[in-house]
């Protein structure tokens, strides 16, 4: 008797797959964005507009990263950043 190990499903039968994404990363990015916004608000209150501006830029980058992680996990098209 020949024993052939099971090969699993063929790609034709496997159906669509989603990339494996760690949603904890989206959560982490949103927490970073919230922190950067809080820093920016404090800097504005203290009159340090240059540091506030930098914090707003990094908050936006973190929010964009969280959005991208969610888009990938949902199988959506990449966002078009303007």
Total strands: the figure is: 0
Beta-strand share of residues: under 5%
Low-confidence stretches: none
Helix content: 55-70%
Order of helices and strands: HHH
- How far apart are the first and last residues' alpha carbons, in Å? 63 Å
- Tell the overall outline: elongated
Question: What gyration radius follows from the Cα positions, in whole Å?
Answer: 21 Å
Describe the protein in words.
With 82 residues, this protein is mainly α. 66% of the residues lie in helices and 0% in strands. It contains three helices and no strands. Helix 2 (23-46) packs antiparallel against helix 3.
Topology record:
Elements: H1 11-14, H2 23-46, H3 49-74
Helix pairs in contact: 2-3
Structure keywords:
82 residues, mainly alpha, elongated
Write a brief structural summary.
This protein has helices at residues 11-14, 23-46, 49-74.
